[in-house]
Write a structure and sequence with these properties.
This protein is mostly helical and about 500 residues long. The protein has a domain at about 1-95 and about 460-505. The chain contains 20 helices and no strands. Helix 7 (about 150-165) crosses helix 15 and helix 15 packs across helix 17.
Length: about 500
């Protein structure tokens, strides 16, 4: 395996070298970098042309300029990268750092959401093939996949941004809005859960009453301006996570694992009060440390309470511990929503990755960053989740028709075990390829999305470099995206070996 990795890395280095040479030559010959100065009417035009020529090295052969860039990049081996400067004299390394952090903040969240939602929905549609739910998801998947990104982005800016900000001035629901929303959700949920007409009618009725009651209550107390999750919400969701994860991965009858996850929920509820003062105005190291501690404590609870199932108990208890930590943090963030609105009355921003000169505390600043990222994240998630849903569905359907699946069922294994342990693991192999290349591609920056929402990310860095015929920003973009593509491709191959031991040979 080590020899294989080293061989792949060596070949990847040659690919990067050849690609960088080709891109550099294409960039410097794409247009005239002095075009704006040649068209200028300034008295010192010739002096400005001479200065830029000397500064960008335009009087030197292309191979000398490329060698200078390559020499600077080679210093990355000693963690002392020199990516040069752009034509305005700004260090490209600092520009790359700001652009990469902005894009990664957007891409990671959107990719994780798309993967989780797409895979879960894809599995459900495969299990319920040719049902109303399957047809509905298939239609929506093709719809989202076909939508132009810029059109979706503009619609979200108008309705989920501007109109939502207007509504937040007086966040109440009219009776007509309550009835229509409750009916739509009732129909959707009854179609998702399926069953005979009696079960569908019962599901729709319960959903209709619950949604209408909840919307009426939220409207009456203006919950959207002064929201609160509270201890009860954290407890209910934590218990649901414990029971759901146990049922899904080891079965509800495994009491040792169930008790260990529920004990982790109890420990999380104690921590909800014990660390309340610590996280009132925390720092990122404190929050990260508490999150890691919750994982460790959950894992230890599962290990000591799991008995013969200590390994799955430790893993699931660590998951529940992390979930409880995230729920506690979400509760604290929501409790600061009112103070955030006092600082920023129109919360959803449509331009930029953060509000300039924002003066709030830790949680208010976190809410500001979240409000800035929500619209572009929705755009990228909607477009990506469609492909993940379709790939997962087709992969699951192919796997579920294999002989070993029929053998597993004939041995008397439960449908949960057949789907999760036998079907899903093998269906992940083709999905792994899509995940790797999709993530590597998105690191390059969602150019259109970033343009519409005014994000200064990798896409903007690349577009500006091309427009100004400035090779250094373009090559910095290539260095990051090319390396990401190669590494993600390598990780995908290693994931194949982990999922299917036959591939290791």
């Amino acid at each position: 395996m080590t020899k294989y990795i080293l061989r792949r890395l060596g070949a990847s280095f040659l690919v990067l070298l050849g690609g960088s040479l080709l891109l550099y030559v294409l960039t410097i010959n794409s247009d005239d970098p002095l075009k704006d100065l040649r068209e200028s009417n300034a008295d010192n035009r010739e002096y400005l042309i001479q200065q830029r020529t000397e500064f960008m090295g335009l009087d030197q052969p292309w191979y000398v300029r490329y060698w200078d860039w390559l020499t600077g990049v080679s210093k990355c081996v000693t963690l002392n990268c020199d990516l040069g400067t752009n034509r305005n004299g700004v260090d490209v390394g600092s520009l790359l750092g700001n652009a990469a952090s902005s894009t990664l903040r957007l891409v990671v969240l959107a990719t994780v959401l798309a993967i989780v939602i797409g895979i879960v929905v894809g599995i459900l549609t495969a299990i319920r093939q040719y049902s109303g739910f399957d047809y509905s998801v298939t239609f929506l998947a093709f719809l989202f996949f076909s939508l132009p990104v810029f059109w979706v982005a503009v619609l979200l800016k108008e309705f989920a941004g501007i109109q939502f900000n207007n509504w937040m001035q007086e966040p109440t629901f009219s009776p007509v809005q309550i009835i229509i929303t409750a009916l739509v959700l009732a129909l959707i949920l009854s179609a998702v859960l399926g069953g005979d007409w009696k079960r569908r009618a019962a599901t729709a009725g319960v959903t209709l009453v619950f949604v209408a009651s909840a919307m009426t209550y939220f409207s009456a107390v203006e919950w959207f301006r002064r929201p609160l999750l509270g201890f009860g919400f954290v407890a209910i969701v934590g218990i649901a996570a414990a029971v759901g994860s146990t049922t899904l991965f080891v079965g509800f009858k495994n009491r040792r694992v169930l008790y260990s996850t529920l004990a982790t929920v109890a420990a999380g509820l104690v921590s909800y009060f014990a660390f309340r003062g610590v996280i009132e105005e925390p720092t990122w190291p404190v929050l990260i440390g508490l999150f890691i501690m919750s994982l460790v404590v959950g894992g230890l609870i599962g290990w000591f309470m799991g008995g013969y199932s200590r390994k799955p108990a430790a893993a699931l208890s660590a998951f529940v511990g992390g979930t409880m930590a995230l729920l506690t943090a979400a509760d604290m963030a929501v409790s600061h929503w009112a103070s955030f609105l006092s600082l920023k009355p129109r919360p959803i921003s449509t331009i930029g990755s953060q509000t300039p000169n924002f003066s709030g505390g830790f949680w208010e600043s976190l809410l500001d960053v979240g409000a800035q990222i929500i619209l572009p994240t929705i755009v990228l998630t909607l477009i990506s989740v469609a492909s993940y849903t379709r790939y997962t569905r087709s992969s699951m359907l192919e796997v579920m028709n294999q002989d070993y699946i029929r053998t597993a069922r004939s041995k008397g294994l439960s449908e949960r075990v057949v789907i999760v342990k036998h079907g899903f693991r093998n269906a992940l192999i083709p999905i792994t390829t899509i995940v790797a290349f999709d993530f590597a591609g998105l690191i390059g920056g969602a150019v259109i999305t970033e343009k519409v929402f005014g994000w200064k990310g990798m896409g903007e860095l690349f577009e500006t470099g091309l427009r100004t015929v400035d090779p250094n920003p373009v090559m910095a973009f290539f260095l990051v995206t090319g390396t990401a593509a190669i590494l993600m491709n390598l990780l995908a191959d290693l994931a194949y070996a982990a999922l299917d031991p036959r591939i290791r040979r």
